[in-house]
Design goal:
By secondary structure, this protein is of the alpha+beta class. It contains 21 helices and 11 strands. Helix 1 packs across helix 4, helix 8 packs parallel to helix 9 and helix 12 crosses helix 13.
Length: 545
C-alpha cells in the first residue's frame, strides 16, 4: 500500500538520494517514485521530484554564491598542486566588494606539452555558458602529432568582443613565450573582435578562416551544390594556378558569387596561399568544436564546478594518451598511418619517371605532370610541403623505389614528439576543505538577469547540419504556402487571422465563392420533414382540471 507522509518532504528526499543523483544525474521520475515506494511506501508527485532533485543538485555542486566567494582559494590550490600554472582573475569593484568578470587558466603541463611536442598552429573559439550566470568560454586548442586536438588554455568571460579576446590573447602570448609572430598560425571562425585582436598582437602571423563558416555566409546569397563544390575546390587548391582555374569556373557559373568571393582575401581561406612552416593544411576549426562538445555537460554548472570538470577531463585525457602511445605499432600515430594507407591506394593511377639527382617526374590519370624531389621532400603540387606527409605523387615515387613512406613523414608526426606532448602530468586537487585560505575579499557573483521564456539546452541546427539520429532538417526553399481560408499565397491560416477580414476582399468574387464552395460541404437534401426540436429545461406538468 502507498500512504501519504508529511515528514517525507523534498528537502529530506534530496539529502537521502543525493548519492543516486551523483552517480546518475539523469535519474528520471519513474525510477525515483519506485525507489520511494520501496523504501518508505510513500507516493511522490512530479513537483516533489523536481524540488528534491534541485536540492540534491545544490548539495552536489554547491551553492552558486559560495563558489564565486572561493575563487581565490581555488586558484591558490590549482597553482600549489600544478606549479607553473597561470591563473588570472579580473573583477570590478562595487564599493569595496569585488564582482566577478573573468578568469583565465593555463595549466603548466599543457603549456609545456604544446611547446615541446605540437605544431605552431592554434585554433580559437568561444561557446556559450548555459548556467544561471551566463557568459562565454574562450578556448585555445592546438594540434598534436596524431592530428588530434590539444587544448592549451581556457577562460570564462562575461561576453565575446574585442576587449575580452585581446585580454585572453595577451595572457596566452606571455604563457607561450611568443615574441616573433612570424612563426605562429591561427585559425578562427571570424568571431566578434577576434580579427582585430590578432592583427594588433600578432601582426606578422598567418590567420586562417574556417571554410565551413565561410560557406555558411556564402550560401545565404548563393545557393546550390555546384557553387558549394566550386568554393571548396578553390579552398583545397594547393597551387595558385589551380586556384585561378577554380575561380574562373566560379565566374562562369555565377558572376555575383565570384564578386562576393573576390572581396575575401584568399590568404585566409585557400591552401594555395598558406605558409608551409606549420605542416598543417586544415581548413576547418573542428578541433575547437570537438573540445566544446567534449565539455558540453560542464557548461551549465556553477563556476568552480565548471572549471573542475574541464580540468578533470584534461587530466584524464593526458593520462589516457600516455598509455595509448605504448600500444602504437608504427612510428606515427594511428590517424596518420591510416591517411598514409589511403594515399597508397590513390597511386594506382600514377606513373613516375626518374630524371636524376633524386628528382622524378610523375604523371597522374588526369595527364598532369608534377616534379618530385625526394631529397628535399618537395612536390610541385605543394601538398607535401603543406601537410608534411607525402602526397600521392611522392607516394608513387616512394612505392616504386621500394622505400618506407614513414621515413618521409615530417618529424612533427613521430612517436617521440607525441610522447613529449603528453609526458607532462596534470595533478589532481584536494577537496574544498583542504584549500589554502588566501584571506582575500570574497568575490561576489555577477548580476543575474533572467531571460524570457524557458532556457534552451539544445542549439539551433542549420538546414544541412546532421542531427544525432542521422537526419537533417527539411528545407522550405521555393515552397509556396497557401492559405486555406482566403486562398492567397504567402501566408497561412494563423497569419491570415492576424491580417483581419480585409484580406478576403482582395480575392475576386468568383474565386471567393469557389473557395467557399470547396471549403464548406454541400447541405444534405432532406428526404423527410425535420422533427421539431425539444425545448431544453424543466417543463411544468399540466395538472388536470
Amino acid at each position: 500500500m502507498v500512504f501519504k507522509n508529511g515528514f517525507v518532504n523534498s528537502n529530506m528526499l534530496g539529502r537521502k538520494y543525493v548519492n543516486q543523483w551523483r552517480v546518475n544525474p539523469d535519474w528520471n521520475f519513474a525510477g525515483f517514485a519506485q525507489q520511494l515506494r520501496d523504501d518508505y511506501s510513500v507516493d511522490a508527485s512530479l513537483w516533489q521530484y523536481y524540488r528534491a532533485r534541485k536540492h540534491a543538485k545544490k548539495l552536489i555542486e554547491g551553492i552558486v554564491k559560495e563558489q564565486y566567494a572561493r575563487i581565490w582559494d581555488y586558484c591558490a590550490e590549482l597553482r600549489r598542486m600544478n606549479p607553473g600554472s597561470t591563473t588570472q582573475v579580473k573583477c570590478s569593484l562595487d564599493g569595496d566588494i569585488p564582482v566577478f568578470h573573468r578568469i583565465y587558466i593555463c595549466l603548466a603541463a599543457l603549456r609545456k606539452g604544446w611547446l615541446e611536442g605540437c605544431r605552431r598552429i592554434i585554433g580559437l573559439d568561444g561557446c556559450f555558458i548555459k548556467g544561471q550566470h551566463r557568459g562565454q568560454l574562450l578556448t585555445a586548442v592546438g594540434v598534436d602529432p596524431n592530428n588530434q586536438m590539444y587544448p592549451i588554455a581556457y577562460a570564462v568571460v562575461e561576453t565575446e568582443n574585442r576587449e575580452t579576446w585581446q585580454w585572453f590573447l595577451e595572457l596566452l602570448k606571455v604563457n607561450l613565450n611568443i615574441k616573433n609572430s612570424h612563426g605562429i598560425a591561427w585559425i578562427t571562425d571570424k568571431q566578434k573582435g577576434l580579427i582585430d585582436a590578432i592583427a594588433d598582437l600578432f601582426p606578422n602571423s598567418e590567420h586562417r578562416f574556417c571554410v565551413k563558416h565561410l560557406h555558411n555566409n556564402f550560401k545565404v546569397y548563393h545557393k546550390g551544390l555546384l557553387l558549394k563544390q566550386t568554393l571548396w575546390g578553390a579552398a583545397t587548391a594547393a597551387t595558385e594556378q589551380r586556384f585561378a582555374q577554380k575561380m574562373a569556373y566560379m565566374r562562369e557559373v555565377s558572376a555575383s558569387a565570384y564578386e562576393w568571393m573576390t572581396d575575401k582575401d584568399p590568404r585566409h581561406w585557400s591552401r594555395a596561399f598558406f605558409k608551409e612552416f606549420p605542416k598543417c593544411d586544415m581548413l576547418c576549426n573542428n578541433y575547437c568544436e570537438g573540445f566544446n562538445s567534449a565539455i558540453l555537460e560542464a557548461r551549465d554548472k556553477p563556476i568552480i564546478t565548471l572549471l573542475e570538470m574541464i580540468r578533470n577531463y584534461l587530466m584524464k585525457r593526458m593520462a589516457k594518451k600516455r598509455v595509448e602511445v605504448d600500444k602504437w605499432h608504427h612510428l606515427v600515430g594511428p590517424k596518420v598511418f591510416k591517411f598514409i594507407e589511403k594515399v597508397k591506394l590513390e597511386t594506382s593511377g600514377c606513373h613516375s619517371d626518374f630524371c636524376g639527382n633524386n628528382i622524378f617526374q610523375v604523371r597522374n590519370f588526369e595527364q598532369d605532370q608534377f616534379v618530385v624531389d625526394i631529397q628535399n621532400r618537395t612536390c610541385a603540387c605543394r601538398r607535401w610541403q603543406l601537410a608534411g606527409i607525402p602526397c600521392v605523387h611522392a607516394m608513387c615515387v616512394i612505392m616504386t623505389s621500394n622505400m618506407d613512406p614513414i621515413q618521409f613523414v615530417d618529424d612533427c608526426y613521430k612517436k617521440d614528439r607525441y610522447k613529449l606532448a603528453y609526458d607532462p602530468v596534470i595533478y589532481g586537487l584536494n577537496g574544498p576543505s583542504m584549500w589554502p585560505q588566501t584571506g582575500d575579499m570574497p568575490i561576489r557573483c555577477p548580476e543575474f538577469k533572467k531571460q524570457r521564456g524557458r532556457p534552451r539546452k539544445a542549439r539551433k541546427l542549420q538546414s544541412d547540419k546532421v542531427r544525432q539520429d542521422g537526419t537533417t532538417r527539411l528545407r522550405k526553399n521555393y515552397v509556396l504556402i497557401h492559405c486555406r481560408r482566403c486562398g492567397q499565397v504567402g501566408h497561412n491560416v494563423r497569419s491570415c487571422g492576424k491580417r483581419g477580414d480585409n484580406d478576403q476582399t482582395d480575392v475576386e468574387p468568383s474565386a471567393q465563392s469557389e473557395i467557399l464552395s470547396l471549403s464548406s460541404p454541400p447541405a444534405p437534401t432532406p428526404t423527410t420533414a425535420p422533427k421539431p426540436k425539444k425545448k431544453r429545461g424543466r417543463q411544468q406538468k399540466k395538472t388536470p382540471k
